[in-house]
Design brief:
The complex is a heterodimer. By secondary structure, chain A is mostly beta strands. Chain A has no helices and 11 strands. In chain A, a hairpin with a 2-residue loop joins strand 5 (44-51) and strand 6. The N and C termini of chain A lie far apart (36 Å). Chain B is mainly beta. In chain B, 0% of the residues lie in helices and 62% in strands. In chain B, strands 2, 4, 5, 9, 10 and 11 form a 6-stranded mixed beta sheet that branches. A 5-stranded antiparallel beta sheet of chain B has the order 1-3-8-7-6, with no helix packed on it. In chain B, strand 9 and strand 10 (94-97) form a beta hairpin. The chains are: A mainly beta, B mainly beta. At the A-B interface, strand 4, strand 5 and strand 10 of A face strand 4, strand 5, strand 9 and strand 10 of B.
């Protein structure tokens, strides 16, 4: 079955460590997105990529980095520069030019 | 002010009740989405619409482009409908999200 897979579902890290969240899709979608969700707030865009080897900053990119070396994969690294990394992170993908988006199951990151 | 506003923030209903969740937006859009997020966190797309009305089972979504307003209705609500419902709009190349409405349906 086609879909988006995020792993792991829960992730714990010590403060000051970088951590990478995985997002893989087998839908052959060109565009992929990373969102952050905090309690009581809507999802906010961190980074997006519309094509392999290219990505753009979203509204809250500071403290995050991404890569898009393969069409299927769009990993997100939460760096030690991110001041409040504890959050729920969602990955999404879509066909370029289409308004329809597909979401992963999310990764809940807790930094202690 | 958020570009996408939802109301109410929280909603508790008894099983069988008719439920309405509202969404207002302030930007030009190409499409509006209603999403459902279960306690585990994963998001499922319920509807994508750009005009009129769509129905799927007990769920109905409507949109009024002139008034920049959409509603999600659930008929004959059931405890399994308990979830967070999120309104999102397509603006240019990305989506803008409401904060969500947490629905609890009690048996």
């Amino acid at each position: 079955d086609g879909g988006i897979t995020q792993s792991p579902k829960y992730l714990f890290r010590k403060e000051g460590q970088n951590v990478t969240l995985s997002c893989e899709q087998n839908l052959n979608h060109d565009a992929m997105y990373w969102y952050r969700q905090d309690p009581g707030q809507g999802l906010r865009l961190i980074y997006y990529s519309q094509i392999v080897n290219d990505f753009q900053k979203g509204d809250i990119a500071e403290g995050y980095s991404v890569s898009r070396e393969k069409k299927e994969s769009f990993p997100l690294t939460v760096t030690s520069a991110q001041k409040n990394p504890t959050a729920f992170y969602l990955c999404a993908s879509s066909i370029q030019g289409s308004a329809e988006a597909f979401f992963g199951q999310g990764t809940r990151l807790t930094v202690v | 002010k958020n570009e996408v506003e939802q109301s109410p923030q929280n909603l508790t209903a008894q099983e069988g009740e008719f439920i309405t969740i509202n969404c207002s937006y302030s930007v030009g859009i190409s499409a509006l989405h209603w999403l459902q997020q279960h306690p585990g966190g994963g998001i499922v797309s319920l509807f994508m619409l750009s005009s009129g009305k769509k129905k799927h089972g007990r769920l109905i979504a409507t949109i009024n482009i002139q008034e920049k307003h959409s509603s999600l209705h659930i008929t004959a609500s059931h405890p399994r409908d308990s979830a967070v419902y999120i309104c999102a709009v397509n603006k240019n190349n990305d989506m803008r999200f409401g904060a969500g409405t947490r629905l609890t349906v009690k048996p």
